[in-house]
TrEMBL record, chain A:
Organismal lineage: Eukaryota, Metazoa, Chordata, Craniata, Vertebrata
Name of the molecule in the record: Centromere protein S
InterPro entries: CENP-S/Mhf1 (IPR029003), Histone-fold (IPR009072)
Compositionally biased residues, Basic residues: 105-115
Pfam families: CENP-S (PF15630)
Domain of life from the UniProt record: Eukaryota
Keyword Protein transport set for record: no
Compositional bias (Basic and acidic residues): 92-104
Protein family per UniProt: Belongs to the TAF9 family. CENP-S/MHF1 subfamily.
A molecular function GO annotation: chromatin binding
UniProtKB/TrEMBL annotation, chain B:
Regions crossing the membrane: none
BP terms from Gene Ontology: DNA repair; kinetochore assembly; replication fork processing; resolution of meiotic recombination intermediates
Top-level taxon of the source organism: Eukaryota
Keyword flag DNA damage: yes
The species this protein was found in: Alosa alosa
Location(s), subcellular: Nucleus
GO cellular component, one term: Fanconi anaemia nuclear complex
Binding partners and assembly: Heterodimer with CENPX, sometimes called MHF; this interaction stabilizes both partners. MHF heterodimers can assemble to form tetrameric structures. MHF also coassemble with CENPT-CENPW heterodimers at centromeres to form the tetrameric CENP-T-W-S-X complex. Forms a discrete complex with FANCM and CENPX, called FANCM-MHF; this interaction, probably mediated by direct binding between CENPS and FANCM, leads to synergistic activation of double-stranded DNA binding and strongly stimulates FANCM-mediated DNA remodeling.
Tagged with keyword Repeat: no
InterPro entries in UniProt: CENP-X, Histone-fold
Keywords: DNA damage, DNA repair, DNA-binding, Nucleus
Protein family: Belongs to the CENP-X/MHF2 family.
Name of the protein in its database record: Centromere protein X
Main location: nucleus
């Protein structure tokens, strides 16, 4: 099971890296500075919190008799904080409208292509 | 010049991280759900950082140390 250990290390390192970037950006904004141990502590907490989120998400999906976790499950996970759930609701609406736009673009371009083909055939 | 490079968790990282904790091997996550989870985790880190900075400032400390983070950790976890 050496592979799992290596993968865990890589995931932790990835979380640590991005956490550090976020912390340092905010600290710079506030004119403050984080000690390395503090960033490590925040990264570790985030890593563990993700485990809790994952188990909750899985339970929510299973409760809805699904095996794929979707956006509704994520909205539930954000329910404790009004500000957070409003933010996630907004983001999910942005994603949904982006999908809709893509759909319509594809419809338009496939309709154009069909028109072209029939024109070419008539030649 | 606006330095607005968005720092985000990578979708692949979060997707793998979530998958590690699932009890059922058949459980999967939709693409949009992964994107939203990246947002939630980013907010989590931002919130942790800001609260720790506030604590450090309240204690007249220039640097944010682990003790400052430890003091804000319980409330942070309850709020999430």
């Amino acid at each position: 099971m050496d592979d799992t250990l290596a993968q865990n290390q890589r995931l932790k390192a990835a979380i640590h890296f991005t956490t550090g970037q976020i912390c340092q950006t905010i600290a710079a904004d506030c004119g403050s500075e984080f000690s390395r141990q503090t960033i490590a502590a925040i990264a570790e907490t985030t890593y563990r919190q993700c485990d809790i989120f994952a188990k909750d998400l899985e339970s929510f999906a299973r409760h809805a008799k699904r095996s794929t976790i979707n956006v509704d499950d994520v909205k539930l996970v954000s329910r404790r904080s009004t500000a957070l759930s409003t933010y996630i609701q907004q983001k999910s609406e942005e994603l949904a409208s982006a999908h809709q736009e893509q759909k319509e673009k594809r419809k338009k371009s496939s309709a154009k292509r069909k028109h072209q083909e029939t024109e070419d055939n008539e030649d | 010049m606006a330095d607005q490079v968005e720092i985000e968790f990578k979708k692949e990282t979060i997707s793998k991280l979530l998958a590690k904790s699932f009890k059922d091997s058949k459980t999967k996550v939709s693409g949009d759900a992964v994107i939203l989870m990246c947002e939630i985790l980013k907010v989590f880190v931002e919130e942790a950082s800001r609260r720790a900075i506030k604590q450090a400032t309240a204690e007249d400390s220039e640097q944010v140390d682990v003790e400052h983070f430890e003091k804000v950790l319980p409330q942070l976890l309850l709020d999430f």
